[in-house]
Description:
Strand content of chain A: 5-15%
Number of strands of chain A: 8
Domain Pyruvate carboxyltransferase (chains A, B): 5-255
Order of helices and strands of chain A: EHEHEHEHEHEHEHEHHHHHH
CATH class of the largest domain in chain A: Alpha Beta
Organism (chains A, B): Halarchaeum rubridurum
Family (chains A, B): Belongs to the 4-hydroxy-2-oxovalerate aldolase family.
InterPro entries (chains A, B): 2-IPM_HCS-like, 4OH_2_O-val_aldolase, Aldolase_TIM, DmpG_comm, DRE_TIM_HOA, PYR_CT
Oligomer: homodimer
Largest sheet of chain A: 8 strands, parallel, barrel
Protein name (chains A, B): 4-hydroxy-2-oxohexanoate aldolase
Shape of chain A: globular
Amino acid sequence: MTNSPRVVDMTLRDGMHAVDHQFTPDQMAEIAGALDAADMDVVEVSHGDGMGGSSINYGMAAASTEEYLEAVAPQLSDTELSVLLLPGIGTVEELDMAADHGADICRIATHATEADISQDHFEYVKERGLEANGLLMLSHMATPETLLEQAQLMEEYGADAVYLMDSAGALLPGDVRERVSLLVDGLDIDVGFHAHNNLGLAVGNTLAALDEGAVTVDGCLRGLGAGSGNTQMEVLVGALDRAGYDVSPDLYGTMDAAEEVLLPMLDDDTMPELDNDSLMLGYAGVYSSFLRHARREGKRYGVDPRDILVELGEMEVVGGQEDLITDVAERLAEEQGNAVEADD
Amino acid sequence: MTNSPRVVDMTLRDGMHAVDHQFTPDQMAEIAGALDAADMDVVEVSHGDGMGGSSINYGMAAASTEEYLEAVAPQLSDTELSVLLLPGIGTVEELDMAADHGADICRIATHATEADISQDHFEYVKERGLEANGLLMLSHMATPETLLEQAQLMEEYGADAVYLMDSAGALLPGDVRERVSLLVDGLDIDVGFHAHNNLGLAVGNTLAALDEGAVTVDGCLRGLGAGSGNTQMEVLVGALDRAGYDVSPDLYGTMDAAEEVLLPMLDDDTMPELDNDSLMLGYAGVYSSFLRHARREGKRYGVDPRDILVELGEMEVVGGQEDLITDVAERLAEEQGNAVEADD
């Protein structure tokens, strides 16, 4: 257990999801400057889906990663700069560009059971002299034992730290404790935790992770982030202070960054909300992209879309298997004895 | 530990704070009907500050408690009806009225160290045949041992259960565990927990309380409630389901009550927010009424109002001691070497 966890701000990366990837380089520079002034340990800058994510498929960003890094890097004195890379989306060229623009850390993210696609990326990141962190996404979909195996693979590839990403906000504090403690015991490298707030547990789960030996944690100012948002950074810093941790980011500075700098840039409707949709995603433990499909098929088959999401969660359906949603809706309609509506 | 905690909905009582006590009797009836349909265990109906709270001092409600109870009681089949009484604000006449209108439970609330003012009230509630629950407010301001003594007093007076109220949202999960487990061990009656979300920990703290043996918990639809709001009820029900608890309220029914029934009644700006103000109240552990004074005196003495709040929290200042705020501001200004601005 550490008394001085490293605190990583995700506002300019996971927070990009909340603004449809539309922060301008100037806005990023201003936010990064405020975070640096608050002595944040690390800021991460990338499209929400990592470098190379700006596309029709994942949403076009307002600028290129290069433009963002050029704007942010000069704002940072002691705060380190991180970028995100998803194998299959980001490229070696972008990694080179990020290294040339002063990135200190590259975080390499894979699905919780697919660490084996990341070996080349870890090796290249280390070759370029950057710190390499591995992220296991949707970690609620793997058993603690599988997560440990996957984390050990990343350690083997050269990772300096491995993060459990609770991408759907589906873990309970007890789940977090079990998983983090297993990783802390089974790895020689640092363990990190990244929460989403779908079950209202982002701060509570982050405290639980630290309690079990995690040493690096993520958050976003004002709780930005995909879905219902990440751990609200200024609240996390306050809770860590209260809990007796000695963190680098200053509470007032972080609060000011959130409310004086970031908030005026946001529309009311861009604030992540813990509404029924995000609750159901956390409860069922499924991708947010399933919502739309579940609603459509629910209507078509006269089934509550929430039942479809729960069933998909139990089947551990992942992205790319959207066609299964129709099958599930049809089966539930039969089981529930619902008349199938005409194809309208 | 229970596997079937009693779940108490506060939307029509603590939630009244978020709407300036302006729910109409018709709105209350509609919300109560939806909660009854969702098999909620208990709904509490009163002015935010309890029966008799409707006043210039605490804010005028849209109707009298009697009108609210007349509207709500006919909507409830299996759901029990609770009212709140603060000694000094509510009267015996109102308690009689509530009993005559079908209240099953009366909750009697005192400051965490002032249980001794509640003896007559407990005795009268029991005499009228109602269940009597004791609430220790601002429980972060008392040591665990003091809380146990105070709870034992309420038990002696006839309480059927005692609740720890984290009124300022200032407790961390470890604080909750320590306090709840001490009460569970030291009392023969039920222990309950009521959270506020100022540090983002309402759901996490409620799970921690149940884990230590609390058997009854509070929440509000959409996270209404004073300050940054109570535990968000539909999220709590989802988290309890996921954690394997067998609760009476139905998840979908509770979600529908929140989003189909309550939400359309609310203005955007009535939704409690975890903003810097509510964060500071939880962080400092002080009354929300101090905010305004701290801002004013902070401006006057050139001191950050947050420093004033932290100082007041450390001094354990309570309501009625607002004049101390000026003294604190003046002292901090001297300590920080700030020039005192003219009285403008």
